[in-house]
Amino acid sequence: MSVETPTRPAAAPLPTYDATDLVGARLSAPRRYKNRVATACVWASVILALAPLALVIVLVVKNGLDAMGVEFFTGNIPSTRSAATGMGPAIVGTLIVTAAATVMAVPLGVLAAIYLSEYGRDGKVAATVRFLAGVMTGVPSIVMGLFVYTIWVLNFGQSAFAGALALACLMLPVVIRSGEEMLRLVPDDLRNASLALGTRKSRMIRTVVVPSALPGLTSGSLLAVARAAGETAPLLFTIGAIQTFNPNLFAGTNTVLPIQIYNGALSPFEGAHTRAWGAALALIAIVLVFTFAARLVTARLSTDRHR
Amino acid sequence: MTVPAALHVPPTEAPPTALATEGLGVYYGDWLAVDDITLQVPRHHITAFIGPSGCGKSTLLRCFNRMNDLIAGARVVGRVTYGDVDLYDDRIDPVQVRRRIGMVFQRPNPFPKSVYDNVAYGLRVHAMTEDLDDRVEDALRRAALWDDVKGALKKSALALSGGQQQRLCIARTIAVEPDIVLMDEPCSALDPIATGRIEDLMQELRRDYTILIVTHNMQQAARASDYAAFLTTEVDGDGDRRRGKLVEFAATNELFTHPQDPRTENYITGRFG
Ligand SMILES: Nc1ncnc2c1ncn2[C@@H]1O[C@H](COP(=O)(O)OP(=O)(O)O)[C@@H](O)[C@H]1O
Ligand SMILES: [Mg+2]
Predict the structure, then answer these.
(1) Best mutation site among B28, B75, B215 for ligand 1 pocket (most ligand atoms within 8 Å of CB)
(2) Which CATH number do you get for residue B201?
(3) Of A68, A185, A188, B167, which is most buried, counting CB atoms within 10 Å of its CB?
């Protein structure tokens, strides 16, 4: 490689500099060596991180497609020996349980995040709430299931709603913590701009802070929803088991895709394995559709669309 | 440095007062940052606050629209009157004060919304939504921004240049028809051409509004203001932290040509303590 000296109508001659150290290819040998090693490490990490993801998707799609068909969506879940592919009840169950959990956890969590970031700030109450949310994040999901079992199921029985309660408890701290961080990213300049126009604080939060943080709030909530949709443990003893459709949120036992994946995978029969792969594919598809839909809605609501 | 001649000849008799302070001080925690400021800001004129960085110009300006209320630990002592109203009376609602006394900030801070929605924001807050389009257009015209943005009202305000953003912020402020506009170093983030446009704009606005402007640029104060207050920082008493004081307040050309205090003279001629 060579260094090009720019030409210009030279009144005075340009000074000549020693430019050897400015040329990238002439890095000293140890630095060149370190550079190569670092680049290789980064690439290896990327591949290592992506490989499981790619494998999961390829495997699930390849095996899951065998179960797909009208019957998969409309049929009842057959007995474990059967080769029938029905998975409808679990799809409906996952949808209503996750939706109910989201409806309970996301608004509450976002409101709590607003309190922490806009009102509580550095106060004692806020510090306590923050601490408790942290503790709640660390509670294993099965313990959350047990908690709902003792306070709800023992009194009112198993139902999709009981499962949704357990999932909501799991989602809540995630929504609160990610929500607070997103709200804190909104610059104070914007808050001041609104307040200096004679806006009440509550209206300022509604019209400036929340819209500015909306994409981040959605991402955080989605992460919580996706995690909850794939939970098995807290649902085992809160929603029970069923093989037929039960669209009733509040009454009767229910079932969800993760539980069916678990059951099918443990079974020794071929048909059950196929159903489990199908259920896995359906679960991934549902989470994807959720994510995509939420992004679309956020982009619509977002206050700043560069056109 | 030569002292630039002031643009405006001050009126022969003192004009009515828009804002006045009496023994005004501001604490941050238990440190008195600004001490004992007494002055009268005349109506329908441009009053400049000059002084070195950290002397409390912004702090003082924030007393006039009660923005200091929003800073945890800030406390105002003394009196600030708007006409004959005590702004710090218990019955006064700071939110309403801010509607009458608007503020433009140092860094342009448009909302991440469209140009139109930025100007309409305050109008919607104050339910001034009849003829919304006309009001928005009028505010943009008065802020000398209409010709730049009339074809792009729905575009994001963040796509404007820094100078245009600052004029948008001015449009947003005057859209709600305030009585007084506070400007905290509105040109410090702008290039000389954008600065010139804002200064021209201030000359237009002084017919309708009382303008208080903070600047650390003395040429700007001399060019653009009718009255000027010089603040400085001084160590006083036992503490070793400096606190802001008002040194001199006078008609701008008076202050620049016949400063009464040697500290003012040193500052405006570029000689420091
Ligand atoms: N929010 C705050 N909390 C504590 N001290 C502050 C705060 N704002 C400003 N100060 C201090 O008050 C003094 C005056 O600040 P400021 O009014 O911003 O000065 P200026 O605008 O003249 O540069 C400075 O010493 C500054 O550090
Ligand atoms: Mg300042």
Answers:
(1) B28
(2) 3.40.50.300
(3) B167
